[in-house]
Predict the 3D structure of the following.
Amino acid sequence: MFDALIVNGKVIDGAGRAWFHAAVGIQGDEVTLVEGDVGAIEAGRVIDAAGLAVCPGFIDMHSHSDFALLTNPRHEPKVSQGVTTEALGQDGLSYAPVSPANLPHLVDYLAAVNGRPPEGTEWTSVASFLDLFDGASSCNVVFFVPHAALRVEAMGWADRLPTEAELARMRALAGEAMRDGAFGFSTGLTYVPNVYSDTQELAEIAGAVAPYGGLYVTHARYGLGDRLLDPFREAVAVGRRARAPVQISHYHSPVPGMGAQMTALVDEARNAGVDVTFDQYPYPAASTILLSLIPPWVHDGGPAQLLRRIADPDVRDRIANDVYPQWGGSLADYKFAHVGSDKNKEWEGRSLQDMADAQGKRMVDAICDLLIEERLDVAFVARTGNPDNVREIMRHSAQMVGSDGLLTGGMPNPRSYGTFPWLLGQAVRDGTLRLEDAVHKMTGAPARRLGLRDRGILRDGAKADLVVFDPERVRALATFDSPKQFAEGIERVFVNGTPVWEQGRHTGALPGRALRKS
């Protein structure tokens, strides 16, 4: 007898194959596919999915839900999209392993990315961090050990390369993280302290996770060389030296015509024997923390030193010409997504240029004053993407889906609420992707990349992470002007056999698990 039986749906199994008719039985946390007559099968609950599709739960390969899952365990922004597994620890910006002395500084520095943990929450290792999520959230999680945590533990916030002893310490911590269940090593090479590294440091640490089957996951060093392809060539070089598979984060360029060159770079690397894949979100806009506009040397020593320096008029004069758009356009295209205090919430949804003009200040003074007042807790959305490049890159066989969704603030990038239904709806209907391929990029492909043998493909014995959706109606409603909108057409979501989203509402169940690399 099944706990539940989903009947009359079109099964899209996540492997990229054409859909087929079958019933999906759920018993405990596993599924069984039943073809043919199911009239004699007993089930505690029968769900009629006529006109709907049934597929594996979606895996968000690039998430910033590290604390959101703890402060709001129902996690409606992602569950409502069909996401059942989140990849945390991205961009090298997370919190394990960490000592009690260093944790508050990392939390303060990254508050605009991940928010803050619930009061009294404690951990030190990757193992104890993962324990926080077991049976306490709506989604499963996987974790990548972040470069920032390794560097801060080994050598603080210093603007220099590590000594041999410090590098050995980072390698040892990375190996311990893998034994604790991490899936690889992540970097964010435009962020402090990660930006202080060189290629050799990255290769050494990636080499420490490679024997465990770990990925090297990287937000590339965008200011390197030609600022176009050279950042991604460094990612390939790290993988080659470390003999580690490479996952390039949020692979995109706002520069017209770069899509074909970027996919060609991936093909060239793969043909040369480097195992390269990438994730991508569909909205043509970036999103990150305001402090990233301040040059790295100003951050040397950590958050307290940064705040001290940007209060100094002489420092402001030195950096005035360096506070510039990282992705083209102008700061009129950079809209505040999150401002920590109620006092300055009025700026959410308005641009950096709007604020500077309204205050009658130089841009550098407006930015520094706000960072000081908000204790660094500010994020923005940069409306500088290129839709043609997005679609070109999206079609590539090595592409997977990652929302890169920040869940802080009142005006986040709409990718936080709309990434997965956008591919199922808009990208399929405009002919960019076949429906089965869109599902594969969200399920079977990331599961295989992560080595999750029992998720991502609907087959007998697989874990019962499931999405039931309407292929004709599914679409993202989130927009830049109204980003916090749940999608249409995601009818039901199951995590480990338990329904968490039904007919537009969360069920209240928290069956998520911390998945550990085996």
In short: DSSP finds 18 helices and 23 strands in the chain. The longest strand covers residues 83-88. The chain has two domains: 58-286+384-453, 288-382.
